[in-house]
Every structure is written in structure tokens, then in C-alpha cells.
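Annotated sample (chain length 307).
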Amino acid sequence: MSKPILSVKNLNKTYAGGFQALKNIDLEIQKGEIFALLGPNGAGKTTLIGCVCGVVNPTSGDILVDGHNIKEDFRLTRKLIGLVPQELTVEMFEPVLDTVNFSRGLFGMAPEATHIENILKKLALWEKRNNRIMTLSGGMKRRVMIAKALSHEPQLLFLDEPTAGVDVELRRDMWDQVKELQELGVTIILTTHYIEEAEEMADRIGVINKGEIIVTENKNKLMQKFGRKELILDLNEKLDKLPESLSQWNLELNSTGEHIKYIYDSTKEENGISQLLSDLCAVDITFKDVHTDQSTLEEIFIQLVKR
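Output written by the structure step:
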């Protein structure tokens, strides 16, 4: 495997008051992936991003961006990173084009009109390029933040709650834009409170809680490993109770007696379903429909954090 675009080793951050925001964080992000960092409020997400981006000084540990140590090569590593912070930090009286060009210049990059034009067109901002930022909607202002972060052609893009306060339609537009950025080779790390956002976009999921990363896993493997699958049988005839002979299956009969639920491990080849159906037939329980339901990423996240 090629070297990671981001490598965090034994990272700790303790603030002056004694609060330890990060505890021995180890994390590697591969080039080109979309990594979603999930965690409740105060878990350490923004502090971790701040340390990588050089706006928070870690207490101890090492951070490498594309193999370069951020302490020793701060200018170089910072140039490789784009950050879209949670808070809107834009000069409201500046026109869109001017503020994006200015951001590029801050990183010592020569003007590149074609690159800036392409970014603004991708983010549906080109028609608004001469508008003052104060005249834009909240969603458009957030797009300006993304344009500013992309202006200096970073390899690693942090999106801290990118769709906070954005309506559903615009959120889906932004998901599409993030995937387009990935296709251009940009590595993306996003924090989000919208679990469906991570489920939709991320290749890999990390969960942080109380300053510690408690899991990092491929999204599909995570859902297989921690998820549960349910087989639901819609009965032809209502039951008052389940026969004693079926007690080994730990079945659930719903309150109306019309449905039976069986929870099984979808990762195992032998999940018992065929034997269960045979045992139901043996006691004359018939059904008109069968369907399955799988845990959502949100349910898995809540389960992990509660642990």
C-alpha cells in the first residue's frame, strides 16, 4: 500500500484548564478516499482537525501530511491542506471572485484564472462571481467557503460539518460535489452530525468519543460487523403466542400477533433461516410475505458511543 496522505501518531491535546480533548489518537488516511469522522458534541472532532491544520497546537504526537511533518515543514504541509470550517468566516463586503483569488494568494500561489473559474463553475458560483458575499444565501456562502479552501489546489480537504444549516436539496447537491472532488483526486475528511451523509458518501468511517478513536473501518464492513439484520414474517393468521417448540429461536411476536421477527447475523453463512422456516411449517404457522431490515449506520453509531 502506498504511503498515507495523512498519518497521525499518538496525538494528544490537553488544554490549559486540564481538559484532555484528544487521547493517543492514531489515524491513517489513504490518498483519494472519503473518510467520515463521527462523534457526539465535544468528542474531539474539531480539535483533531485543528491540530492537523495547524490552528491548534497538540500537546504531543506526530502528524505527517504526504510524508512531511507539520512541525518541521509547516508551510509545505499547510499548502497541501484545504479547510472548510464549521463557522462561516468570509469577508461579507468582498465580491466572491476577489475573496477566492485572495485565498489562493495567501498560500503563495500565482494567479490562475482558469482554475478559479473552474472551481466557481463546479460550485454554481460563476454567475455570482461579482456579487458581494453578504447578498448570498447561507448555502451559497458555504459554497464560497469550499471555493476558498480549494483555491490553492490542496490534496487533502477537511469539511467540518459542511451541510450544517443547509436545506435537504442543497445538501444533496453538496454530496454530489464532494464525490466530484474525489474523482479529481482530492482526499476528503468530513465531520458531520447527519449520519446519512456519512452513509451516502464515505468509503471509511471513524468514530471518536471522549477524545479517543473507538473504531475506524470500511463503511460496508462496519455495517456488517456491528449491524444486525432482521427477518420479518407477515403471518396469514394472527397468533396469541408462539408455540413452546420455537423457544430456541428467540423470536419476537408483535403486539397484534400479525408479525414474527427473527434477528440474525448476516455475516455467517449458516444463519438458520432455512431451518426456522422448516420449524414454522412443522407447527402449521404460514406467512404471506417475508422481508428483511438492516441496522442503519445511525443505530450502529449510537451503539458504539454507548459502549
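Annotation: The chain has two domains: 6-224, 229-295.
Annotation: The first strand starts at residue 6 and ends at 14.
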